[in-house]
User: Fold these one by one.
Assistant:
Number 1:
Amino acid sequence: MANNLLKGKRGIIFGALNEQSIAWKVAQRAHEEGATFVLTNAPIAMRMGEINVLAKETGSEVIPADATSVEDLENLVSKSMEILGGKIDFVLHSIGMSVNVRKGRHYTNENYDWTMKGLDVSALSFHKVLQTTKKLEAMNEWGSIVALSYIAAQRVFPDYNDMADNKSYLESIARSFGYHYGVDNKVRVNTISQSPTMTTAGSGVKGFNEFINFSEQMSPLGNASALACADYCISMFSDLTKYVTMQNLYHDGGFSNTGVTQAVIDKFGE
Ligand SMILES: NC(=O)c1ccc[n+]([C@@H]2O[C@H](COP(=O)([O-])OP(=O)(O)OC[C@H]3O[C@@H](n4cnc5c(N)ncnc54)[C@H](O)[C@@H]3O)[C@@H](O)[C@H]2O)c1
């Protein structure tokens, strides 16, 4: 299904950990659509070595960067421009982590050091990516920067814990920075709010299996897959969406606008 939508475009893709990762599918689709890009992840995530398989498959180089470190990001962005031979057209921020979730700490009993760590990794890192690319004048005009979010930013999903707050902050950054990036550099900034997806980050949430089934039944089109999310990211990186900016875009099979479905009502009649 390749249409050369990203022909000649250069990118940076954060967050491909393994084959399940949404970023992994975005990299594969971006390659199919003619883009060249650098892959990056936290140095600790490199230990598994799986990213090298993706790099080989897509002809990409890998530059480790902790997205909470401005120094790492400066190195990543400047080296990426050297490797790719010019300014950047698209960036995917596909990063999320909560220590409170990982360690099973309840939302009403947060460890605030962990909260701050999760906020830095999951949300503030997006500001750092935006600020670094802006300061280094790394983005081409009409470039597109996308981060991945979840509807727990707007509605309560109790087990999503402090990640809900992190996603609210993330979406707010897309709006606030998107204004300045638009006015100053004609660069677009958006978040895509994706259906629950079976990945390493996703399955860390308590009761995820049950929840993903509930979401499937609550979405008129069913849950959107990681590959479908990748397709949406490609469209957001392409020139076909040039005037879309500062938005939180639901990619969720209709879940966000659904009060209840017949399938869920039927369950209560059982
Ligand atoms: N899986 C879901 O259900 C779902 C739903 C909506 C949104 N999202 C979001 O999609 C994004 C990608 O997650 P995924 O589901 O593909 O899971 P994933 O676990 O494959 O990806 C998360 C990535 O974040 C990276 N990361 C963590 N700390 C980092 C740091 N300090 N610096 C750089 N990278 C770091 C990890 O190494 C990993 O590659 C996340 O923002 C997640 O919140 C996921």
Number 2:
Amino acid sequence: MEASHGTAGPPAGDLRAVLTQLITSAETLAAVGLALTARSGDLVLPAGLADRVMAVATAVGGDLDNVDAAQLKAMGSLARAMLAQAAAFSANPQEPAAWAVTDPLVLQMLGQASAAIGPAIHDHVIPRYRGVADRLAAPDARVLDVGTGVGALACAFANLWPATTVVGLDVWPAALDLARANIVRAGLVDRVELRQQDVVTLADDDSYDLVWFAGPFIPESSLDQALAAVAKATRPGGLVVYGTFGGADPLHQALADLRVLRSGGPIVTDDAIGERLRAVGLTDVVNVGADIGLPARFVAARRPHTAHR
Ligand SMILES: C[S@@+](CC[C@H](N)C(=O)[O-])C[C@H]1O[C@@H](n2cnc3c(N)ncnc32)[C@H](O)[C@@H]1O
């Protein structure tokens, strides 16, 4: 038996050191999550324990003094929720991901993180298609956000393209309640419409200049039906952007695939997504992944200008 193939990764003897580092990371995340939550005022810890978790947060360089209580609470919730999900996965690997994250703060943090997809599409996808920027600046421009969650990305779309009307679809009432409040807070009630609707039942034809499709959340069993529905809902010349998790290196790609699997969606290569977009009549497939500064990758395609009604 060969001891090692010797091409990639640390020698086998280093596995213990890697494991020790990972255990430190998990324990650090636990302590920092508690420190943030305690500092926000949302959790009371015994004095000695509070001091010790704060010492861990300080040691990793976190400056808790210049962050307001709401942000501390949100970040603490996110850290603790992610760790809890990882622990639940480790204990019960066969259970689906905690999709029903019910803590509103965690949903808001996840939504806010997804809002960065808007500028990435604006900067890296739209310029690849002649005429689409103009369409999105036109007074009748419309954007569809499939899997709108708490509406953070829908609001980002509305702000990036101030002429557009955005329609956000979701099947989850709890997320839509938060989305409604977010849209009011953002002053976008007149421009962002929310619908509790499964994407497979979408019956809008020739209606959108840009469709964002949250790929990791749409199960394989209904994916082709969902893609056919969004292709039909796209205006001739408009774009569908299929997004999924991605990673810049093997570890982050492996974690991305795991996240997709646990989110209920299919693990698909960019080429396979492109094929499926072509199969529903879309063309000009473009893959956008590297260098967008997000743990995500996009496959975009255009509805042909000659599409018939
Ligand atoms: C990660 S969230 C999207 C986050 C979102 N960008 C935000 O700003 O909050 C994905 C959403 O897709 C929704 N979803 C899952 N299946 C769906 C379906 N068949 N049709 C519409 N939405 C769906 C889920 O309920 C979930 O809220």
